## 1
Amino acid sequence: MDCNNKIQVKEEMGVILEVKNLTKKFGGLTAVNDFSFEIKRGDFIGLIGPNGAGKTTVFNLISGFEKPSSGSIRFDGTNITGLRPFKIVNKGIARTFQLVRSFKFLSLLDNVSVSCQSRRGKEASKGVGIDAYASSILAAVGLVDKARIPPVVLPHGDLRKLQIGKALGTNPELLLLDEPFSGLSHEEQQNLTELILRLHEDGLTIFMTGHVLRELMNLVPRVIAMHQGKFIMDGTPQEVANNKIVLEAYLGKGSEEFA
């Protein structure tokens, strides 16, 4: 992200992330089972599934916090399977977490500035400096007026925005959002939805999980559904909402959940 709050992306719209036959086993438990999908540059995709479906494990594997038992992950044509998280960040993938993580007693500006110290962040801040670059990110996520206060005093909705700001500080091409609406009020969900939509409109490729299905299904144009670590289907929200296997076999809920 530059100081005009626009995402720096390449013009070509080919495949940016290719996941093939991804499997992760924890002892006798298979958390992700032969999972495959592709994301094109500029996509905006949701990953849904009940608790224990394997969504966060997929994100952990892509971002390097877990190493796969088998399968491959390619980002922008490069094999990143099993790379450490900081190397994957330097390739152009950033993520948020279900549990909010921050340096509680540093200012918001300092929190984002830490992320800007990544290789890609430093490249993006050349000519303006880390502080100015970090300030532009805080402006983009709607927190610049709180730049000098610590996260410990923020409401939960602002903490979610800060998480996204810290991820943006690494100047990513692909942003993984893990349960960004978790714990938010309806108003906070609406505010965060507007932010995520702006980021996508500015050119950022976004892949996100969510338990707040109404919010997620109304937000993304494409959904990947999984259950017990396995791929179920990939389609529009309407196709997923009308799929009997998704509703009965894996969600176990009626279609009103998507209304």
Note: The chain is about 35% helix and 25% strand.
## 2
Amino acid sequence: MHQRAEYKTIKKRLEEPRKFIQVLMGPRQVGKSTVIKQVLRDIKLPYQMFTADTVPATNLYWISECWETVRRKMKTEGAQEYVLVIDEVQKVNSWSEAVKKEWDADTFNDLNIKVVLLGSSRVMLDYGLADSLTGRFERILMPHWSFTEMRDAFGFSIEQYVYYGAYPGAATLASDEYRWLEYISASIIDATINKDILQGVKVMKPALLRQTFELASAYSGQELSLTKIMGQLQDAGNVTTIATYLNLLSEAGLVSPLSKYSRDTMRKRNSVPKFQVFNNALKNIYCGKRFNDALTDPALWGRLFESAIGAHILNGAFAGHYSTYYWRDEKSREVDYVLEKGDKTLAIEVKSNTCGGNSGLGAFRQRYPNAKAFVVGDGGFGAEDFLQINPGELF
């Protein structure tokens, strides 16, 4: 079975003396539960795993009951330490207060219970962590699968990665594109929006949220103003509402609005966004063409290729290595992706073998002479080479 990079991090921390709650967060279907089960199987520590997936949100005592179960088992078995894992913890109301209460009680009573919390809703987890658990936890961010992982685990070619994306659960469905599309729609998109977002956050117009997601995903790799988005949506809304929904979609690991790069923070915030999915499958279910047809459509394939490179870049940013933007000047010279880490800047232009055109790298370097610049694709970094590295390593 494939072992993700986060396996080593989790295993190392659970083998250390008890100090922090470990919080593993990431989008749906990226293998959070699988990797924690792999670790628990290998660390030779007694453990108990619970999931809040089917627990009523109003059951305020459920977390305490889980803790008491582990305490009893620990006493009965004469164990010196135990591992408690709670999956989808954010689905329980006031979960962070309950976790704080039980964790602090164990600390006071010198009970060596190591705790791992898992969740798909990053926005709800972050809120709870900041609200009640400050100083008591460490985050482990698990992004979407990389091309290397999809290739090694499922034999994906780069063309398959560009089109089918990087959901491991959907990989075996690539030979049946109708089943693949249904899986992405129901098990990924519907589940994320209906469970991870709508059950955890008050959304006044769920239909508008869904429309915003579909439009932003379809336009992945392209710029589109929020005003134009409103003009294409069936449900009425305003710019502030759309921007709020886009933030929720980004925190859920679906699609993110990238700001235009500038050294001026206000210009970044007020710029026209460029949309970027975290996983290319989310764009391609709306592309209107099957794999073989998309592959032979140069213009379409160029857009899918750029979006796939952008998804790889964005997942590095999700893991906290850098911030991601795009750039365009007054003469419409552009750079597809701009990465910023501290005082270092990196510009990346994407070119598929079917799409050329003059890049704005030269203009960008003139304006920001200390920046590094790279081409990915035709005439530069080979796509497979680029997809096998963490873009943060290029700084």
Note: The chain has a mean pLDDT of 91.
## 3
Amino acid sequence: MTSQEPSPVGFFKAMHRSFAATLEAGRGRAELIDVLTAQAFDLFEHNVEIQGEGLPDLACHKGCPSCCNLRITATAPEIFLLARYIKRIHETPAGAQLDLPGRIAEAHKVTRGLGDQDRLGLRRLCPLILRGVCIIHPVRPLACRGHASFDKRACAAVAAGRDAEVPISAPHAMVRSLVQNAMQAALRHAGYAWTSYELNEALTLALTSESCLATWMAGGDAMGPARLPDVDWGAMARTFDDVLAS
């Protein structure tokens, strides 16, 4: 769905209504995670294509891990989608050798509690990058989709610890924020845990707890320890309410 209202506020409201309808129709259903995340990713891809028309080609591609040492955040539906995808890989003979759950748990031990700058300073790649390729690329979170650059050399320089100005795609960042926030606002109003989580810790929790998804579906927050501590969630909730009431 694409909003027919031209303003960001109108777009946000239209997406919120769409996500709210999905949540209402899918309450208690096993396929809710698939439907909700597919909706979010489709909204992002379709609208970023429109907003990015006329801009230079992106330097990003599937085999470029230059920005994959940043702190990655994701919503609960994205985490559960990723956890299931990782479990399916792990259940294959080749996937068992990769041991993605083990790689994620080890990365969490190293990165736990670190903010954006400290994570960047580590220059440690995301545990889901293998031989320079993102192994979960088809289901990567909105945070990854929305971080897009026009200059591969600048990205590589920053990844190597050198000072460089990376030309980031503003349409990607804007559409990612609008889509994610609209979904979060709808989750909140529907009674689900709606905040964002640090990827390594949240995935570790989702992969090791059999009840994590059931708790979330029932309105609880089993991934609470991984919630981002540097965000004023109360202020964000009030902003959502103000925008929707405007």
Note: Residues 8-245 form one domain.
